[in-house]
Structures are given as C-alpha cells and as structure tokens.
Automatic annotation (TrEMBL):
Belongs to the peptidase M17 family. This is Leucyl aminopeptidase family protein. Residues 310-317 form the Cytosol aminopeptidase domain. Transmembrane segments: none annotated. It comes from Sphingorhabdus pulchriflava.
C-alpha cells in the first residue's frame, strides 16, 4: 500500500512549487492578464479553460515554474479537483496558491494510487507531496485513502492469489492491529452451522475451502452494529455456469467483503463508539462432482428451506446465513455490501450502488451522506408485490426470481432473514470502474464505502 501519510504535510513554510487554481468562469480574465510567453505556453498545452485542464508554466523573470489547474469553482474545491494534477505533476512538493485544499485532499492522495504488484517496473515513480494550511483534515483524508486503497487492491488481485485464506488473513491483520477478536468457522462446523455458505463453497478445493470470518471490536456497552460482506473470491456461476465473458471479471465478486473489511478498519481507526461485528462469508463458487445443483433444497441457518433455482444466485445464499448470525447476536443496525446482481448495473450503471433499506430514516441518512462525500447511492424499492416471484412449489422459498426485477428480488430474498425491528441496509455495488477518471483508475473501486462511513460517523459521533 502507498504510504499516504507522506503525501500531505502541514504547511510550515517549506519550499514548494505553486499550483495556481483558476475558476472556469474566470479563465478568460486570468488568461488575458498573463504575459505573452505564458499565454503562448498555455495555448500550446491546450490549456483552454475547461474544468480539469492542466498546464506547467514558466514564471517570467525567474528560473522557476508553476502549475495551473482549472476547476469548476476555485472558492470550494471538490473531492476530485486536484486528482489530475497529482497524477501528472513531476515528483516534488507543492502548495496551492490562494485556495484551501478542503475535500480535495482525498483526490490528491488517490490520484497517486497504482496497482503495480504484477508489473516489472512501477508506472508511478516518486511522490507528489502537498502542503496544506488545514492540518486538521489530514488524518481523515489519509484514513479514507487507505480504506479505498484496500478495496481497490483486494479487488484487483487475481483469484489465484486471493482466496478465502487471504480474506481471513486480512481480517486477522485488522484484529491484531486494532485489538479485535477473530473467529473463523469452517469444515464440519460450517456445514452444520451455516449450511448455505457450505453448500455454495463445498465444490472448491481444500485450499479455497469456504468459511465465515467474524471480527468483534469495541466496548460491549456501546450500540451493536454489524458490517456484512459477500466474499465470493471467484464466481464461475457453479453448475449454472456463466459464459466466458460473464466470468472474466468474477475475481471482483469478493468486492463486498473488501468494502466490509475497509469500513471496519475506518470505524476502528476513528474509535467510533460502537460494538462492531464484522462478518465476511468467504467462498469460491465453482464446479465439481460435489457442487450445489439446481433443484437442491438447503435448510438455512434461520430454518428457512431454500430451493436452488440458479446456482449463479449464490451471493444471496451466503449472505442469508451471515445475516442470520448478525441478527442472533442482537445487532441493532446491519449494513451489507455485495456485488450481487447484474440487474442493478443494468438499472444504474457502474457508478451508483443500489441501496435497499427497511427504514426510511436510515435510507435518507445514507443518501445524504453519499451526496456530502461525492460517493452517491441510489435507493431502490423493497417492492413486496414482487415477493411471489420467489415462491417455490416444494420449499419455503426459491433463491432466484423469474427474470424480472432481479436486484429487487435478490434484496427481498435477503430481507427474509432480517426481522423488521432490525435496521438493515443492503448495498448492491459494482466494486469496479470500467473507465478511468482523475483519481479513479480503471479497475477495482470503492463505491458506497465513504457514504456509509460518513453516515456512521454522524450517527455514532466520537465525544
């Protein structure tokens, strides 16, 4: 992981190259006021006044240079305003001229994220350091950059190098670092205690054996919250096998687990006054002679008999047993992350996690938090009339709907395992960015992480 703590420093008057921030609306006046050589250099670099335009310019009368960056509003930088500069500038130390860094600190940090584990030569060499007159913002920005880095890196790793063992090791790291208690259920105990998790993962090799990973942290007197993650380290679809194209990105099907692990660490670093229960169901959904079959019926931990219509609707199965455990342990709030349905992506595209919640106040709080930190969510309905799409002729429920409203029926299936008096939010997130944007490279991505953390930090403030 990049050492983000070195990329932002308090401004103590140290030597630094200036970054001049130019508002889009004021660009024409700024350009007209520049000396001829500066205008010529700006024009040659196509520095035309569009938000995001960036140029390196000579300072007349000296041997020094400065950078110039166009933003939508120089009086209030947005989260990603500085990302292009942090990606493109030479190695060195920089200072904004006449502007406060504000929320843009995070974008400065994440503009320097690279996934180079499998490259002989790293793409980015050297660091771009920003000095800021707002030192109080540094710690939060660094923590959120580290959490985002964790999600991106775990999702980017190929499944051959990231199995259930590695997710368990990551939870062990968190427990050791933050003095939490780790408990892992696998083998016979998983088969008897969490039959849906076992059923999905039983076809995997011994090295990829399924398990439920739990971490407990915090004062038992504080409100109990559960953070749940879907950890399907690779999803072939099982016997309801995906196509080659559909399988290509299925290393990212553990993106929910990555979000849950990263959020748990944010909570612990901030010492939020909660009793945290992290639960990650870690499996590989693959094919063997012992694989779960369409038509099989499995009795869940909660006692609900589930008929398997589609083995590629496996995420909701492992989450069902995991949610049941969170409920048993008296969580007052449960938030789960899952790369659950293609239907959510068809409806909302890659950038917007679908939010389902059984409580309007909870949903509104999460939506507002997402807007505040440029990590948007979009609420989808738990539309009860669609529940009959999950009817089974011979069991309590089927695991997949009839082809319509796939994101909704998946959420309705999971809701069967959460009582109405337990506040519950389900984020169906993509965990992937198909095209790059400043500060947000193509590949694994944290989508919904910062929104939920913002909500929790406001709901459970540190006194």
């Amino acid at each position: 992981m990049t050492d983000y703590s070195t990329l932002i420093q308090p401004d103590s008057g140290q030597a630094a190259t200036e970054i001049e921030i130019v508002s889009k609306e004021g660009f024409a006046d700024w350009f007209a006021a520049q000396p001829g050589p500066v205008r010529a250099a700006a024009t040659a670099q196509k520095f035309d006044g569009n938000a995001g335009d960036f140029a390196i310019l000579h300072i007349p009368g000296s041997e020094d240079w400065k950078a110039a960056l166009v933003v939508a509003d120089a009086t209030k930088l947005e989260h990603w305003s500085l990302s292009k500069a942090s990606e493109a500038l030479p190695e060195g130390t920089y200072r904004l001229a006449g502007a406060e860094t504000g929320d843009a600190l995070l974008g400065w940090l994440l503009g320097q994220y690279r996934f180079d584990e499998y490259r002989s030569e790293p793409k980015l060499k050297g660091a771009r350091v920003l000095v800021t007159s707002e030192p109080g913002r540094i710690e939060n920005a660094v923590h959120q950059a580290e959490a985002t880095d964790l999600v991106r890196t775990l999702v980017n790793r190929p499944a051959g190098d990231l199995g259930p063992d590695q997710l368990e090791a990551e939870a062990q790291r968190l427990a050791k670092t933050h003095k939490g208690k780790l408990h892992v259920t696998k083998g016979h105990d998983l088969e008897t205690g969490y039959p849906l998790i076992h059923a999905v993962g039983k076809a995997a090799s011994r090295d990829y054996a399924p398990r439920l990973i739990e971490l407990e942290w915090g004062d038992e007197r504080h409100p109990r919250i559960a953070i749940v993650g879907k950890g399907v380290v690779f999803d072939s679809g099982g016997l309801s096998m995906k196509s080659a194209v559909g399988m290509r990105l299925m290393k990212k099907d553990m993106g929910g687990a990555a979000h849950a692990l990263a959020l748990a660490e944010l909570i612990m670093k901030a010492h939020l006054p909660v009793r945290l229960h992290l639960l990650v169901a870690a499996v590989e959904n693959c094919v063997s002679g012992g694989a779960l079959r369409p038509g099989d019926i499995v009795k869940s931990r909660a006692g609900i008999h589930v008929e398997i219509d589609n083995t590629d609707a496996e995420g909701r199965l492992i989450l069902a047993d995991t949610l049941a455990k969170a409920v048993e342990d008296k969580a007052g709030l449960i938030v789960n992350f899952a790369t659950l349905t293609g239907a959510a992506r068809v409806a909302l595209g890659p950038d917007l996690p679908a939010l389902f919640a059984n409580d309007d106040e909870l949903a509104d709080g999460l939506l507002d938090a997402g807007k505040a930190v440029a990590d948007p969510l979009w609420r989808m309905p738990l539309w009860k009339p669609y529940a009959d799409m999950l009817d089974s002729d011979i069991a309590d429920t089927a695991n997949a709907g009839g082809g319509f409203a796939g994101a909704i029926t998946a959420a309705l299936f999971m809701q069967k395992f959460v009582p109405d008096d337990v506040h519950w939010a389900h984020l169906d997130t993509f965990a992937w960015r198909p095209t790059a944007k400043p500060g947000r490279p193509k590949g694994g991505e944290a989508l919904g992480l910062r929104a939920v953390y913002r909500y929790l930090s406001q709901a459970y403030p540190v006194r």
